[in-house]
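[job 4417] fold queue: 2 targets
>>> target A
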Amino acid sequence: MVRLEAALDGEGVLVGYSAEGHSGAGRKGADIVCAAVSALSRALVGALRGREGVRVRVDAPERGKLSVELNYDGGARDFLEGAGAVLLEGLGSVAGEYPEFCNLTITRR
């Protein structure tokens, strides 16, 4: 099971994201759930790294574990809100289609 958690601030902007586990939906290298979660996660980190006004801390100590903490200033709010919306739409779609292999929890900080 892949456990996903996204944290939003009081304005609904993504400020944290974590993914942990392996879905078991397919063999290693051919698991559609893990592939989708990995692609969405990498796209998020890639889009935010180097973005002015966004500070990203990424921790991936081993395969199957990822933690992303985000801070932003006012000028980057809209971009980060959009990036978070795309991430949550994608992850929500994966979790909705494969609930036995993927769980998404969204919290407010």
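>>> target B
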Amino acid sequence: MFKKVLKILGSFFLVSFILFAGLGVYTYVTSGNETADATPYLDEAMPVFTTWDYEQFSPYLSEGAKEAFNNENGKKLLKALSRLGEPESFESPQFLGSKVGGTVEHGSFDLVAFSILGHFSNGDAQFTITLNRENEGYSINHININSDVFIN
């Protein structure tokens, strides 16, 4: 009886290990593909976005992001972000994760998140960018920017 319980537990742990190892390999392979696909887009979009000029970077935004920037609060935000100064360089994007799903209101979505460190004339800034994968490529869905420049 005891041997049967140990065999069942051993089988459970073996299957669990194989499942988690397979998930790890899948995540590793997927992250490499996502990074290779999105890096050229981010290399093109980041210098344009950091002009802080809505008219220049709006073609890179998703419809929801355009609504967030194209109003009075968006203009105030861009003015605050311009305190970073001129962009000097950006480090390679680091893949954070992806999410596929859907909502009744907005339909299906396919999001990919990256982290990018940017170097500016007034200090560094850490960007967390969520891209919306579309038929033709990507669009910026959400941006979070952290920098010590904003503290002063």
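[job 4417] complete. Note on B: Residues 40-150 form a domain with the Nuclear Transport Factor 2; Chain: A, fold (CATH 3.10.450.590).
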